[in-house]
Amino acid sequence: MRHEPDPAAFDLTNELRLVVFRLARRMRAERVLDELSDSQFAVITFLHLYGPHTLGAIAMRERVSAPAMTRTVNRLERSGLVERLPDPDDGRHVLVRLAEGGRRVVTATEEKRNAWLDSQLTGLGEQDREALARAIALMREIVSR
Amino acid sequence: MRHEPDPAAFDLTNELRLVVFRLARRMRAERVLDELSDSQFAVITFLHLYGPHTLGAIAMRERVSAPAMTRTVNRLERSGLVERLPDPDDGRHVLVRLAEGGRRVVTATEEKRNAWLDSQLTGLGEQDREALARAIALMREIVSR
DNA sequence: TATTGTTATACTCTATAACTATA
DNA sequence: TATAGTTATAGAGTATAACAATA
Q1: CA gap B70, B59 in Å, rounded
Q2: Which of B117, B84, B118, B82 is nearest to B100 (CA)?
């Protein structure tokens, strides 16, 4: 712990927290399918990033109960966005895999959000881009610890 | 639209999107009260930032229906986190104001999140801090457009 | 008449407990 | 016996429609 608090350092922390929440909120508003709940979208995004996982692993990652994840996966399966597969190594496991429809929703949403964000970043000078790249690297390090 | 896509610019956009979502998710995990739902916490955070608002204004800001906000405010009121006040200017309005208990929850959560984030930022060099400050300014500009 | 908020009703998401199938 | 997932049940969040109070 720091014994002499540094007001400038605190401001940096506090403002980073605020702006990250606000930007995340703004980007989340860029949607492709309004019918898809946040929980459902979080699952297909996770599967798109990290590949097929067992139902329990997804539930743990999303910090919801197994029954809640069972229902979320049921909805996604009925909508054709994910598939259930048997695990050849352990008959108790259910592997959940992104289906073609799910992949399309995730990529279309990513494209829409990137397009919005990109439009906000146009016209940035080289120094701004470098600062942003450095800040992104710092934030990546923080979240991957 | 850009006719010759710039791969480096795209990477910057894409990685900013990803890291902002991840950092927001990680910070959101730093909680004070597990019993408080996301909707409830969003309301008291909004009231803390922007002061008392009518029920309808909060519902619009949070993009939920008025009946949904009525119920959320009911819970918060029963928990002693907010208060309903009459609007002297318009008898149809209900002003919702953060109560002392709500203020404590918001500030304790902010402090916990800032403490976590600050601990992740310790040891940063001057150049990193400058890059971060510049990136924060850029992101603030984006969200306030 | 139009607006603000609440109540009525129905559906979704969530959790805990009980159950089934597999290890 | 222990573990992974599903089903049963109940509580909370959400929406639309109908209503009461106020402008």
Answers
A1: 9
A2: B82
Sheet holding A53-54, edge to edge: A53-54, A94-98, A82-86
DSSP string, B40-60: HHHHHHHHHHH--EEHHHHHH
Phi and psi at residue A6, to the nearest 5°: -105, 110
| A4 vs B: CB within 8 A | no
Residue B2 pLDDT level (bands cut at 50, 70, 90): very low
- Which tens digit of pLDDT belongs to each residue from B78-97? 999 999 999 999 999 999 99
- Mean pLDDT of the region A108-126: 95
Which contiguous run of DSSP H or E holds residue A49?
helix A38-50
How do B53-54 and B94-98 pair as beta strands? antiparallel
Is B9 in Cβ contact with A110 (below 8 Å)?
Answer: no
Strands lying side by side in the sheet with B82-86: B53-54, B94-98, B82-86
Closest CA to A113 of B138, B15, B24: B15
Measured CA to CA, the distance from residue B29 to residue A41 in angstroms comes to: 18
- Both tokens assigned to B12: 């910057």
List bases in chain C with any atom under 7 Å of a protein Cβ.
3-9, 12-17, 21-23
Tokens, residue A57: 């692993």
Cβ contacts (< 8 Å) between B17 and chain A: which residues?
A: 27, 110, 113-114, 117
Task: Look at A17 and B113 and tell me if their CB atoms are within 8 Å.
Answer: yes
Q: Is residue A132 within 8 Å of B16, Cβ to Cβ?
A: yes
pLDDT of res. B145: 84
- Count how many residues are written for chain A: 145
Nucleotide nearest to A93 (CA to C1'): D4
Do you know the residue count of chain B?
A: 145
Q: Mind listing the pLDDT tens digit for each residue in B20-57? A: 999 999 999 999 998 899 999 999 999 999 999 999 99
